[in-house]
Amino acid sequence: MNVVDACALERNLFFTLQLLELETPLVIALNQIDSAEKKGLRIDHRRLGELLRVPIVPMVAIRGVGFADLLDSIIEVYENKKNRQTTSQKYGREIEQAVARLEREIQKINSKYPSRWLAIKLLEEDEEARKIVYDANQNIQTLFEEVAQEIERIHGESPNTVMSSERYTTANRITTQSIDIVRPARIGFADRLDELLTDRVLGYPIMAATILVVFYGVFTFGDIASEFLIRLFDIVELAFLGAVGPGLVFEIFWEGLMEGVIAGITIALPYIVPFYIAMAVLEDSGYLARVAFLADAAMHKIGLHGKAFIPIILCYGCNVPGCLACRILETDRDRILAAFVATLIPCAATTVVIMGLVGTHVGLEWALGIYALNLIIVFILGRAAFRVLPGEPLGLIMEMPPLRTPTLEVTVKKTWFRHKDFVYNAFPLIVLGNLVIKLLMMTGLLGSIEWLMNPITVGWLGLPSEVGITLIFGILRKELALVLLSSVLGTQNLSNALTPIQMIVFATVTMLYIPCIATIAVLVKEFGYRWAFAITLFEIFFAITVGGVLARTLVFF
Question: What are the tens digits of pLDDT across the range 499-544?
Fold first, then answer.
């Protein structure tokens, strides 16, 4: 199934033409028909289907329009796939002659891939295609060189460039034959708003105000909800204590298991849920793309372009999808640099630590100050990494999605999709971590671990000895660092156990060292063990260094 944006049909058909060359059963979901009509574009989907020779299903996915027809088409094509093989579009005469010559030779190697597809891929200078055919028949390489020289002689361009031009020409021809402009475009409210949001002067204060509103809203809601839930569970705790009395049952069940559950509900959830809601609204409204556009100039300062701002924004929700989103960048250098910068961004779990600790007990201005410090560090380290990984940043070419009103249903689904990772994965870790710490306290082993970490936690960072173990657990999930802090310090009101300087130092160190074990796993998967180890080791050392410097300089403020 190929999802095609009806508002950008010609650009989308470039990929569709590539899929057709695979000669595999295909259904096209022509999405955002309503947005196309608002722009004055009337698409004849039946004519489009005749030209492409595949089923076309018009849809408005966000409202569920067309899903039943889409499912029917998928089933029909699947059940009759032998009769519904797709057919590649024809290109210019010189290209077709070159493809035919290559195809005849490729057919001799008995590849599992369509011979026409492999021939076209050779013209596109695809390395994987070359490996497949050259290893099987060296004569094809000689033939390709002859074909390539002939194409360059006729067109004055490389086969890859000519092939791309042919595809765009074909996409343009198909689009022209299947679209009617039913009315002239008019400048409406959405267009004027778009101009305002992307304005080179007014766009930046609007972006800054939006980010501040998001964080202030998350903090305000989280603070109120957290306080309410803590009071509610205090009543439940007194009732349970009255029922079972003090002793081993109360310590293991309540202080070991239930306090982990309560800490997750009262400390983490009130901040994570509203943040994911805000992210879903900004993403679905199309504003995140505008932010990337505005950030392009700033991102060039650290050797990246505005497209890299999208993974960074995603990291404010979770570093894992943020690191995965680095795939949208074109070069290995850009992807590694973006991933390094992305791992320095405080995720929603880190927001729990910053807002739940510093924002609640020291003040919102200090919490925002930590975020400001983070941006300064990201810029400095990003610039330094740019010099270590030399290369010129590419220009930004990115489709700007239309502004639209987010729907409640999609926002709720997207929030739950991102939040269920916390519910299914982080929550058990929080409960287990709290139970482990309680058992370590009961057996006396906790003191030995704390003693080993004292040179760092007490000597350098100026934190209580008990805090060291929470930093270790924080590598599993950042929420654990704060949730377990209340457990080892023996109080939900952390201002009774930590000074404001200690809270700021703890939050800053937690923010800067490697996000979590899941992020490390993604770095290994995307970039290999060497880069994952280098980034992890550097960020742990850097976080401890910055924390010690802060502990000695904050006394002057």
Answer: 899 999 999 999 998 877 777 877 887 888 888 889 989 999 999 9
- Rounded to whole angstroms, the Cα distance separating 430 from 433 reads 5
Q: Which two tokens stand for residue 42?
A: 């009337």
- Tell me: the pLDDT tens digits for 420-437? 766 776 677 667 767 777
**H or E stretch including 211?**
helix 203-244
CA 8 – CA 30 distance, rounded (Å): 10
Per-residue pLDDT tens for 256-297? 778 777 766 776 677 778 878 888 888 888 888 888 788 777
Q: At the top level of CATH, which class does the domain 93-181 belong to?
A: mainly alpha
CATH class of 2-83: alpha beta
In the chain, CATH 1.10.287.1770 covers 93-181
Where are the domain boundaries for CATH 3.40.50.300 in the chain? 2-83
First-to-last alpha carbon distance for the chain, in angstroms, is 60
Phi, psi for 32 (deg, rounded to 5): 60, 40
Alpha carbons 416 and 97: distance in angstroms, whole number: 53
Q: Tell me what percent of the chain is helix, strand and coil, each rounded to the nearest 5.
A: 75, 5, 20
